[in-house]
Amino acid sequence: MLRAALPALLLPLLGLAAAAVADCPSSTWIQFQDSCYIFLQEAIKVESIEDVRNQCTDHGADMISIHNEEENAFILDTLKKQWKGPDDILLGMFYDTDDASFKWFDNSNMTFDKWTDQDDDEDLVDTCAFLHIKTGEWKKGNCEVSSVEGTLCKTAIPYKRKYLSDNHILISALVIASTVILTVLGAIIWFLYKKHSDSRFTTVFSTAPQSPYNEDCVLVVGEENEYPVQFD
Hints:
Keywords: Cell projection, Cytoplasm, Disulfide bond, Glycoprotein, Lectin, Membrane, Receptor, Signal, Transmembrane, Transmembrane helix. Its main location: membrane. It holds the Pfam family Lectin_C. Potential multifunctional C-type lectin receptor that may play roles in endocytosis and phagocytosis as well as in cell adhesion and migration. It is built from five helices and 13 strands. A hairpin with a 4-residue loop joins β12 and β13. It is α+β, with helices and mostly antiparallel strands. It folds into two domains: 1-23 and 163-209; 26-156, Mannose-Binding Protein A, Chain A. α1 (2-21) runs antiparallel to α5 (166-206). The two termini are 57 Å apart. Strands 1-2-11-4 form a four-stranded antiparallel beta sheet, sandwiched between helices. It has helices at residues 2-21, 49-57, 69-83, 159-162, 166-206, and strands at 30-32, 35-40, 44-45, 62-63, 88-90, 93-96, 101-104, 127-132, 138-142, 147-148, 151-156, 217-221, 226-230.
């Protein structure tokens, strides 16, 4: 009974410890550096890139933005091995005609790019960007897409979760330490219980009544009485 009750006691503590260190919204998200990523594999028909973006905002995120070579490589590797995405992924980028530059939908700074070609003379109105999975390069394309085979979303880890206060760290440490202590204590109690049970079982048999005769003594039965005969 003790062994059966112990997991039920430890599970809430383990859940609390896991919640204390979890950074992404759920296990379906993947963390890299200070952000969480999810690939929505559902193919949808859209009228504009805003319809694609709504897929991400419905999950509390925005379309993907990429800010360094390491992040670009992480996305490529995860798309190939885990997400199994299409050959081209629509990036969360648009061309702003007001200042003639590309910008991210999530309002982050454009600190990195990986364009496969640069043509200053091309018309960039209604131009979006796509990540080519095989090469890892970006290419320009029309924003007026009719359908997408999957949407890649990204959200930043909240500041208050990324930099836990000292109290939260202490609570997490205490929860984990308590879990370990209870596990060890439960194992010790179970061991002592089993040892006590085995000892009592042995004592019962060791105190059972013994025959008053030894191996050299036989019982001779007469016609009227019984008496032991001892052989020398």
